[in-house]
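ESCALATION

Customer reports they have been waiting on this structure for their group meeting. Please prioritize. Original submission:
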Amino acid sequence: MDEVLTIAEIKALYDSEWVLVEEPQTDELLEVRGGKVRFHSKDRDEVYREAVKLRSKRFAMLYTGTIPEGTAIVL
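Update from on-call: job pushed to the front of the queue and completed.
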């Protein structure tokens, strides 16, 4: 898909999925505001494998669902 979608459109289309966004559009805090969806799946590892295959210069990985309580996030 070469269409640039907003973050709201991405969340609506791919609810509770991991999404690989190529050429992400970011704000001044580097939060993703949109981009080109290259791959999506409920399986995070599948999306990581696809990111390695595509070898994009610039991409973002998003989760569009609610993170379960008690989950640790490492940056």
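Sent to customer with the following note: Residues 4-63 form one domain.
Escalation resolved.
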